[in-house]
Amino acid sequence: MKKITLFICSIGLACSTLTQAANNQTTDRDDCQSAAWYSLAAERGDATAQYKLGMMYFNGDEVKTDYKKAFALLNSAAAQNNAQAQYHLATAYEMGIGTQANSQTAFNWYLKAANLGNAKAQYKVADMYQTGQGVAQDHAIAQVWYQKAANQGNTLAQSALNR
């Protein structure tokens, strides 16, 4: 049992170390190796690395733009409750980037991210309730979500509350 626990701890430390190495590389643009480091950590299941590498593929940073790879990586990170990945995965579903557009699935991912405290996702949930996109229209629930996002400084939500 001690060996299993030690092994599991060493995997977590290795992923954390690889992700930190990638983070360090992103601050030093003379040595653009962060994609390689993130890739190693992502392969080992590190959600932060999966998210960051997914965004690199999405934006074409250090790697060739590949929406399918970006979508797959964001999906893996989102499944591990990475709120940023959930937000961007929802956006991919909403816009049909790397996958078929699906406003209901987009709403569900925005809601997961919103429940984890992501202010941009809280605004999107409010907006989708307000317009009835991907969910039944409900102005009262929209106001609750606008308020949550506004409380975190989201200026779009603050403007929506002042309409």
Any overview of this molecule?
Helix content is 74%, strand content 0%. It is mainly alpha-helical and 163 residues long. The longest helix has 25 residues, at 2-26.
Low-confidence stretches: 1-15, 27-31
**Major β-sheet annotation:** none
Please tally the helical runs, counting DSSP H or I stretches of 4 or more residues: 9
* Class by alpha and beta content: mainly alpha
Order of helices and strands: HHHHHHHHH
Radius of gyration: 18 Å
Question: Proportion of β residues?
Answer: under 5%
Distance between the termini: 60 Å
Principal-axes shape call: elongated
Pfam family, one: Sel1
Protein name: Sel1 repeat protein
Signal peptide: 1-21
Keywords: Signal
Structure summarized in a few sentences:
Helices cover 74% and strands 0% of the residues. The chain has 163 residues and is mostly helical.
Structural key phrases:
mainly alpha, 9 helices, 0% strand, disordered N terminus, Sel1_AlgK, TPR-like_helical_dom_sf, signal, Sel1 repeat protein
Task: Chart the SSEs and their pairings.
Blueprint: H1 2-26, H2 34-43, H3 47-59, H4 67-79, H5 83-95, H6 103-115, H7 119-131, H8 139-151, H9 155-161
Helix pairs in contact: 1-2, 2-3, 3-4, 4-5, 5-6, 6-7, 7-8, 8-9
